[in-house]
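Deliverable D4.2, example record:
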Amino acid sequence: MGTPSTQRFSKPASGSGPFTEDLRRLLRTELLKSTCSAAKVARLFSMHRRTMSRHLRTEGLAFRQVANQIRYEIACQLLQNTDMALSQIAAALKYSEPSAFTRAFRRWSGQAPSAWRACHSSTRTFRTRMKIDPESGLETAQIRGGLVSSQTPI
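Output generated by the structure prediction step:
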């Protein structure tokens, strides 16, 4: 699934360089494991926060912009492919409460998460129950009574 189409996040801005791709990949796991700051992510790249900001700026991006794009992509994936409650999705993405997640999602997509899910659920042939392991960032799917664990972080 590519980046979901929206009013604000139609595609990543101009940043599709190797550093941004590495950052996006890292953020997909880090955002699910713990609260994620620019300084913490920069340390994972063994660089200072300002150095990371300069790298992103050369690609026309900022850390917060990339992090929000990844949050949006994860939220869309969870809304479209799971039956998780909005409160569970908000918790998985480390929002303080579901209303904060709803406001952010509305800002990103122009519609509430429940409305987005209703519009995008018609293409789904079956739904699975998904849980995200906060330690590993891996998703676990319950399909017809059996558990399946994905080795790829969402």
